[in-house]
Task: structure prediction
Amino acid sequence: MRRNGFLAFAFGLAAATGIGGSLMAADGPAPVTIPATDTSRSPGDKHWALLNTYCEKCHNATDWTGGIAFDTMQPDGIAQEAKVWEAAVSKLRGRMMPPPGEKQPDQATIDSFVAWMEGNLDKAAAAHPDAGYVSLHRLNRVEYARAVRDLLNVEVDPTDLLPQDTKSDGFDNVASVLKVSPTFLDQYISAARTVAALAVGSAHASQAIVTYRAGPHDQAFHVEGLPLGTRGGMAVVHNFPADGTYTFNFNVGTGLGYIGDLAQEHKVVFLIDGKQIFERTIGGAADFKDADQKQQEATKEFAARFRGIRLPVTAGPHQLVLTFVQRAESESDDWLAAFNPMGGMGNLPRIGGIEINGPVDVTGLSETPSRARIFSCRPTDASQELPCAKQILTSLMRDAYRRPVTDEDLAAPLHFFAVGRQGKDFDAGIQNAIVAILAGPKFLYRVETDPQLTTAQTTESSPATNVKVSSAQPAAYHLSDLELASRLSFFLWSQGPDPELLGVAVSNTLHEPTVLAAQVKRMLTDSRANALITNFAFQWLQVDSMDKIQADPNVFPYFDEDLRIAFRKEMELFVGSVLLKDRPVTDLLTADWTFLNERLALHYGIRSVRGSEFRRVELTDSHRFGLLGKGAILMGTSYANRTAPVLRGAWVLEVISGTPPHAPPPAIPALKENVPGAKPLTIRERMEMHRSQPSCNACHGIMDPIGMSLENFDAMGKWQTKDAETGTLIDTAGKMADGMAVSGPDDLRKALAARPDQFVQTLTVNLMTYALGRTVEYFDMPVVRQIVRDADHNGDRFAAIVMGIVNSPEFQTQQPPSDGAKPSDKT
Amino acid sequence: MHFITKKHLSRRAVLRGVGATIALPLLDAMIPASTALAQTAAVPKLRMGFIYFPHGAIMDQWTPSGTGTDFKLSPILTPLAAFQKQMIVVSNLGNRPAESAAVHAIVPGTWLSCVHPRETQDPYGGVTIDQTAALKIGQDTPLPSLEVRTESSGGGGSCDRAYGCSYSGTIAFRTPSTPLPMENNPRTLFQRLFGRGDTAEERKALGDQYDSILDMVQSDAASMQRQLGTRDRVVLADYLESVREVERRVQKMEKQDLSKLQLPQVPLGIPDQFPQEQMLMFDMIALSYQANLTRIATMMMAAEVSNMTYNFIGVPDAFHPVSHHQGDATKIAKLVKIQTFHSQQVAKFLKRLQDTPDGDGSLLDHSLIVYGSNMSNSNAHNQYPLPTSVLGGACGMLKSGQHLQCPEHTPLANLWLTLMNRSGIAMDKIGDSTGQFAEI
Result:
């Protein structure tokens, strides 16, 4: 029954591919014409002639450049050599081939060839569909943290708790590389204990010290998220294990061992959950005199003022804020010190950190959000304990295992409950059982059962799918509704299904197209879909690259960590305002709005934004439109002391056009740095020296003009008109691979926006990689193209692309690889 | 329930139950068949330690006067006078591969490798000698090696735009591309060594819980296996192999008789007094040696580019700024104070090793402790001449009690090569080494 459904789906896709394609081309912005031709054309065909004219000079049976000889290939072999042809199409679409300097076909010829070839490839795929196979999937650390947040109402920082996951294809959720090691296993067990202890709390919690350090942000001004009227400082949410007394020690200073600006009085305040409960001053005439005359003794006394503060706190998460009361800026000139070239921390005292030591004198255990979530019942006598434990654990395990729970599942956690209960209390038993649930493989692995292995009894309540195992070629099979629910929620939320989605899956209606569509719609508007921004989009756009840049303070004295923090926030809000508001995804390239606070607005030369909070701003300066004008991207594609047009060019080719250049060959010398004494050269001049060899020009001839067109943005994304080292005007002129002249970010943006299909396809390939957790292979490309065409009909909305992926056989089925045959993902 | 009846569990329970209070004789059944009894006791085992301090030394206050066995300790080394007979000070060593324009960023990570790293953000340097030793002589203990430091990170300059941040936070590289993170939280370290939990009872309970988790995980994974296709079974088989490896480690750990150890209170966290923080880390190393939890330890006494203030010895200045002394006599005097203080701390550590019996001698007799830095003059950031000393009895394998003045610019790698070969770890070359010392 289910199997037939799948075949019908595959057939439907084939029909759409073959027939719908030519209809769609009329209203699409780019030609995607699929002529109704068959593959029985002769080599004399006009399309094939393109290969002969432009490609076979290198790719021939004598030279075998790149291991490819088009003169050995035939039109009727396209289906068999789909992998080569998909690569060829990609190179042509991105104008990566023929290399710069070689004879170039015009764009119409290329479009026509690409359309013809893709039509053939799509038809071949429709005849022999292959949905690929995703390996057994382990939760990565981001998914783990998000899962326990929903499961137990516990916030944990995955980077603190768990080892880093390996990336593949730019993403950290690719199943085949998510390996385990003994250390890894140990850390996951340790994490399970930490999380369980935080969730349940303990009236027997032992004393421990936890230290929070202030981030690297500037503390000269108001910090976003802190109360208005304060300067600098930090805010953290700490999960207190029990009601009791805690000793707080505050680090107040400059971080350099001495305290600056003691001539002025600074008032330090400490707030718990918004309520001020501590206030002391530092500085002022008396302190200034002491610091000068007593030196070390005075320093000791200053430190002691902020130590040993004993306070009763109840169990559970509480927000702690430690900050300074804002003074009038006219009182001293310390703010000017923020402009000193060594990082701009200035001379003002900073908050260094908060240390929490406790609890002592434990008085009990108040209700916390975690305990409310866990303890759905409370036994009042011994006979109620087991039934109540069963109730609590069954509910937790259903969410943790993402499926209904069987008696067999329950056995182990109940055993842990009994052991933990022994000699202690009910809560301790539950805590022990939670450790077992979180540490076990049923939580850590997303199991997708092959229904053809029916020898093992299925423990799930999903319908038994009876498929006969007949031939040596393993048959494709549909995921069960429960498995589909997990794929869907990990795709959209980076965590397991919520009760509603799980309920729909249990009732076996999720595979019904309308039900599925309704769930996708619901999930995309849920706040948890934010994972698509911070997890998917940030990895796709390589936002984290900027974190590796330690700006050279001698070149960029204005840079501080606040700017980096603002870059990231802007990206989150901007990308979210396109994808999650279901705008056309091409708005990412062209949007004339962004989100700024004062610090970032000034960096962009916008003077109308005041304060530390972010708000939507309509842009008038077109240079800042879209992704190309965003600081996060511009900084992430630079070096610490200068711009890197090559990196910017490569970023555009990879992230926007989906045609990444080859990695550079080994032993390439770095760009020559200007040396004192010699006449300095502009970046352009240095790059031209660098790529003087023709072999370099094959890639650099394409990358460098793209990067040069962004050269008016310095390495930190600030607008510049003169080369920083030569003082001469920057020349951004260049030619794109298709011969189009570009100069400056506006031209580049327009050139990229003129090929929306290329951008939408790149986004789709990345989104599909992330959705499936596997490499998107050549045999997936026909489906990708279909999704792009369908999205085009829907105004290139993000939700349409998501829906296309969710409805694809790639997402809903598994094609087990035959032994030793072509692997559908990297191992 | 099948997951609690595994044979090894009951054995562990027995061991745990009494091991915490009484010194148990090793039962025959607990010695692996392949292990010769001689190896598990009697023959003294060499312990190695590599103690690094940042920002070099004021060399005329470090270098002893006189050479050979008749030498007089310098001010900085005077706190170690009690150990002069088990001390080799080697002068005129240099580490050319550690030289770079990156000032601090590659100094720690090249100390024990003598290999110049590649100019990439991703780490690619050289294997350090502690890790070579761990591979050769560290495999019998639960932890092949132990990496500790104080301070979580230093100030600006510990990262570099050409070399990244990988070489400033650790002195241990297992492979050229695998820097080993160094633990700076004594509480975390203690729990890794002696089990999580604050009391012996809690540690036992958590130990038992760990065993049960491993059993449950195995049984769950085995039942999951049955539902999976061939390809996924391979994935889960890897997982199961890791579970079994953890079990093996746990079993090794349980073979260590910790009953004679005087375990201190579990540290609450990082002490706020720096001297205590340093000593706590030294104590952990000593305890690990004593309990045979590891034989190889590395330690950074302070972070590279440390801004620690040494108020407790009358130096309120931050360490790194004062290390740029510019020839100023006051600043130099302060630096000497800091450096002398570090020697005092090391002396306390050595005393502790000396007071701990080990076989027919003391732990110190069976230890080879390198104490030095990979910078010479902190004002010039140079790598010649390096302050370098070798402490401890080293199982009698070294000619101790001497000040060896070697030819100028002798590679530091020559000393490493000598020490490794004397310790029974045969090597032909380390970094830029050109030979070994006959004198040691």
